[in-house]
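JOB MANIFEST
job_type = single_chain_structure
chain_count = 1
residues = 305
[input]
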Amino acid sequence: MKVSSVKRRGVARRGRRRLGKLVIFGVGLIGGSLALALRKRKAVAHVVGVGRSRANLLAARRLGIIDEIATDPALAVKDADLVLLAVPLGQTAAVLAQIAPHLAPHTVVTDAGSTKRDVIANARKYLGAAFARFVPAHPIAGTENSGARAAFAELFDGHKLIVTPEPETDARAVRMVSAVWKLAGMRVITMHAADHDRVFALVSHLPHVVSFALIDQLAGYADAATLFRHTGGGFRDLTRIAGSSPEMWRDVCLANHDALLTALEGYLEELELLRGMIEASDGQGLEERFAAARAARAKWLIKKS
């Protein structure tokens, strides 16, 4: 990729990087919030939305998230400066295959998926020479809500963006994507894709599986209505993320299969340890285990602040 092509298009003027045309596949919480954040900072000229739900795209246009609805992926990406894939992971390969032949030589492609090795493999398979301009990324921000109506400009403020470039990834493309997310309020961190997938299997994907499983367990009891009537704040906190998109988390579980299975095995071992202590009426063991967990959480919160 020529240096001049990147500088000519998604360019910094007076210290501010301005995108001419941003194309978002999946105008939901993440894609919609990025568009709103860039609009708030007057950092994008034209936003095109592509998606499966016409109603959602109409809402996005009505809310000022996008300027244009596109139904043809080939026309959507024409002369785009940046293409963001914010679709469920299961759709990524199909979208890459559709857009690959139609990308301009200057167009940079990125994603917002919470797994990286599978996305990179699909990008390598379908993008051909354009793979160098693909920047794997994961914004660590979100809520349990989905769709264009859930989007808001401040979603990314103070949060981290993980980028996992490959050896072939063009450094200028990485700088462009990083600059865009920094404008949205994020701090950029670089990781290897395998490290990313292991870390987020433990700190994100496992908690979502646990949250869904706890709700599912209670819902399976004959007196589920009574059980849910008696839940309190702790239960709501623990299960808030079970309100997330089932399609999205199905795809995450399948995409990060190996790392998530390892995380689940470790969690089940911990549960078995606690089960054994409860079965043996080992009060001291339970207290020591809980105290260690409490101390670890306190240490994490101090570092986080």
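[summary]
Confidence is low (pLDDT under 50) at residues 1-15.
The chain has 13 helices and ten strands.
exit_status = 0
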